[in-house]
Every structure is written in structure tokens, then in C-alpha cells.
Amino acid sequence: MALAPLTWRMLPPITVTTPNSIHTLLNAIYTAGTSLVYADSEDRTASVNTKWTWYLDNTATPNTGSTTAVYAEPPAVGSAMGQKIIVCGSVAVPASTLRYQKEATTYVASRPLVGIAKSAGTYTHWTDAVSSSATSTPFTSGEFSGYATTGDLGTAAYATVYMYECQEAVAVFAVVAGVVRMAFVAGAFIDCFSTNTLNVETDGRIYGLTSLKNTTSGMDVSFLSTAATVNPLFMGNATALNTNCFFFAPGLATTKNGARLTTFASSLGTFTAPNGNIPLVPIQLNYQASGNYAGQLREIFATRPGILGNTVNDGTTDKGYLAGYSSTTSGHAILFKK
Amino acid sequence: MALTPLTWKMLPPMTVTTSTVHGILDTIYNCGRQTTYVDGTLKSSSSTSWTWNRDNTNSINTGSTTAVYARPTTSNPSLLSQSTILIGSTSAPVAIKYAKTGGGDVWVTSKIMAGLGKGSGSYLNWNVLGSSGTGTPFTSGEFTGYLSIASTSVSITTIMIFESQEALAIFGLDNSGSVRAGLFSGAFIDPLSSDLANAESDGRLYGISGLGAYTTTGINTGWLSGGVGATYQDILTYYSSGGSPLPTACVFNPGAGSVRYFGRPIAYTSPSSSFVTPAGDIPRIPIQIVYFTTVITGFSGQLREMYLTRSGAMGSSLYELGTTHGYFISSTTSSFNDSILLKA
After folding, report:
1. ipTM score here?
2. What's the Cα-to-Cα distance from A127 to each of A89, A140, A219, A262, rounded to whole Å?
């Protein structure tokens, strides 16, 4: 049986302030996540079922005094497994090698890191998840995925952060020169349509994360059709240089890589019905190594080509929010359904 | 809103005694007229039952079966009087109507072709000019024109037919079990809309899809990895280029007699027998359809109770604890390959 449908909301985009650094980017993510209203001006404080709570850490070394980590927890409705999301990084290299999702990852200051935890305790410091301990976590307890790459912002001026949230998952995109250079979706965004604990956690969910790889070329324009080597979302494998898509194995602290089963045509042309209706096509995920079926993305649909940040409105009602490779040019798009 | 779900049923496979166009058409006719389904249910008491007829008196090859035609039972909601027809002859017909314009898929002696009528009257004659009037083999209504579903240059030894309330599927297999003939016909695409720009007045889209007339290969084992713009021997996707003869797939434009080609916009990475959940559940993934010529020109809809699933063997039943859940459509009976499941 399908899980309860999620309701995605868009937060007001936030311009990253100067000077250009990982710290100002993290500040922008925090500012987006603590907005009092949604992009449609609705009061966010009253939206208790979709509102995530964001925190920041500017006390950790290195770069004490600057924001080096922001982390978030879902509203009560999405917190059955105690999930938390953390985004972090610093201009200075951390003293100890971090615990990465893929061990071969190298630390670079322009490459924000992201991780997901379940049954997470209180935040300690982002640098507490170190490679020397396979169970280490930035929280006092629980399981942690290790840090994954989210892209490479390069040296050009950072522009804008886009954030979307729903009851059980969150998505963040950061744009440089019109192109998405950083992106991730994290949380319980996969529905396996099952309550069997071989397939899902005890709460019926699968907790995971997908993010971009380390390249300044940005997210791929045809990200619903390309392989993990190119720079799509929802495609992952074990190679450090490729994009990430992974989720916790149900009941365990280990993660499994996921891969999109569905490869959309690279050119979707006129992807609307003759009367103009916009299709919402479910996206399926497999276990990347075994080929087992993992599930379907929750209220994240492939749709007509579009532009990051646009809203789909039927004339009276917002239906959802488009996310693609660019905030200025149309390409493959997913719709976060409102 | 989605249409009423279809129930697919499989008829017992039937052996072809003479692998000629006439012999194959006779076998399709006899297979369709069986009285029970493979699950033991009586066809006469099933809403899925189609009525099958043949033409063996046509002057083009008098005494031989040159056409088989079928329509769904009148008690089901096929409101637009659809009729499916399969034809073949050893003598050349007049300039009949073809589904693929501009040539590339026309009659030859070794082909079995098929077409779909909507608003169809009684059967009249399949050998009628397509260049004047509607080219329909029926007394009235619109007709898609003919497209290839098989070449008899290869020996087809077994016929499999699947029926549902509003659509049917026919396959021909060679003696190794490889699928060499393929057809889907009827209201098998759900436009998920009742807008008359998207759907007929009964909410359906009526279409037909043929495998083509390959002489050396049948459906590709990895056919679901294809889709629009690919070069696989596919079914359910129109091919705009490549060698001849190729698969053709089209639907009637809603409210019109003209047709529009279609295909699958999504390629699936050859789901194997491991394409089950960790607990062993078998997924059923809806398959979307788009209008397509050389580029995607619009969204058509979703296949009706025809799902991507784990790899399987052609014609196998998905059976669990006394219940048949559906039937696998794949490239061969002899191994597990890319499959769709016709849900029972």
C-alpha cells in the first residue's frame, strides 16, 4: 500500500551574500530554511506538517566563527525514525579525514557535503564523523550515512539557493551563473509500497539521499536520462567521482546505492497532452548492485521540460514546483507536487 | 481520471499446422474461437471475450482464409464499435490503405498485416482501395490502415492470444519459442483525461501496434531498453527510421479518422529476474506513451493493465497461491527476458 502522499512546498529563493565561500552558502541554506513564509507567501510557521527546523553551527573548528554546518529535522509527522539532514564544509581543511559515503572522496572547500542520519541524537559537531570510525556520526547517537558530495560551486560568484520541503524530505539546489552546481534531495522520498521489513524500515519508509558529483559543469540538462558519470540525480554507484543516490538498508546502519530504473528520452519535445495537460510520470528506483526494486519517488514526478524555481499553476491553484538543471534555461525537469 | 481497469485473459496457445499466411490466419481464427481460457474460465461467460470471424471466400484467394476479424463482446463498454482485422494473401490486393504513410510498410505475399476500425459497421471486404474514401474493410466507420505484424519468411508454429474487455494481443512464435509476430490492438492506452482533445467521446484512445515484419529476428530480448528513437526490434513504439520493415504504432486522433504515431518515452534498463523487492514482491510499473514522429509531439497516456515487471518467459502465467495475477509478454518462451505483464 502506498504511503500517505507528501505535500511539497517551496521556500523563497535566497541570494548568497558576499564574500563568496562555503560559509556564506551554508548561511543562505540556513536563511532559506528558517523563512517565516513559503514562496507563495503562506505563513510557514502555521504549516506544522511540512516545516523543517534548521540549525546552524558556527562554533566548530576549523573556521570557528563562520557557519560550517547546518542541519535540519523534519516536523513531527516525518520524524518516526529520528531522521536528520546535515550540510557542511569549511574553507580550512578539517583536522581529521571525514567519514565519507564513498571512501575515496577528497575534501575540497568549494564542495559542500551532505549526510543523512536516522535515530539521530543531539548534534555534536560535523567533524565528529571521521573515517577512522565506521559508525561515527555528527550526532550523539544513531546511524549516519557518511558525507556525500553535492557538487562543486567553483570560484564564480554563488547566486541563489532554492529549497523545497515536505513532511518527510527536503531538497536544496544552488545555482551559479544560471546552472545548478549543487543539489540534493534527502529524507523518506522513496515509497516501496510495502510494510515488509525486508523492504522498508519499521515505519514503512526508506531513508535516503541523492546528490550531484564534484564538477563545476553542473547538473546535466538531461538529468532524467543520463548515467551517474554525467551528473544526474537519482543515480548512484560506488565510484567516488560519480553522482550519489543511496539509502539505508532497512533496519541497518549500512547503505545501498540506488539507480533510476527509468531512462527518459533525452529530448522530451512537447511533453504535454493535446489539451495542454502536464503529465506527472512516476520515477522508479532500483538497488544499483542487485537490480532489486527499491520503490517509487514520493510526489516527485518527471514532467515536461522546465526551469528550476518555476511554479506549475492551473490558473487558480499551485500544483507543484519545477526543478531542473538551470534557473534560466529549460531542460529535463522534476515536479515536487504540492 | 483513470479508466475502468481491464482484465487480461490468455487463450490456450494453438499450433500452426501450415506456416503460410492462410494457415497462420486460420490458426489465429481457431485460437480466438476457443471456448475456455487457460485459467479454465469459460469464454462465453467472460466480459473479456472477443467474437472472431474470418473471410475465406474473398475473390483474391478464393477458398483460403485471407482475413480474420474480431470485436469485443457488445456487453462491455467498447462504445466506439472497434474491430480488429488481420489480413494476408498470395495475390496482390488493390491499393489498400496503410497505417504508415510514405511507404515502407506495404503488402507483400509473406506479410501478415493488421488494422483497426472504430465506429465499424459489418465486415465487407478487406481488399478495397485506400486511395479513395476511408479504405475501411467494414461497411462504415474509420480505419487506421494496415501495418505489418509478421513475416512468414520465418516459420511461425504457435499462436498466442490475450483478450481483455477492450483490447487484444496476438503473438506468433517460431519453433524455438521466439516471438516473430506481435500485435496489440484496441483501447489499450488510457489518456487519463476525458477532454476531447485527449480522448474519444468514450474517454478511450483506440490504437494498434505491430512488431513489423522482420525476417531474421523477432522482438529483441532487451526490447524495453528501447523506446522512441531507439533501434531495437520493439513493439508499442513507432519507428521513424532504419531498415524496413519496422514496427508501427498509431492511435486514432480523437474524434477523427486520421492517426497519430506513438511510442514509449522511457527506456528501462533490462529488468532481470532480480527485479523484485528484497522480500521478493514483483513490481508492476505503469508504462507511459507519447505521440512521436521523429520527436516527441505530445503525451498520449498510460498502458492499461500492461506493466513493466521482472524478466519472464513469453506466455508464462504469474501465479500465486491459487490466483493468476497476469501473463508475461517477452521475446521468447525459452529464457527470461524483458517483459511486460498483462494483468489478469
Report:
1. 0.90
2. 9, 13, 27, 37
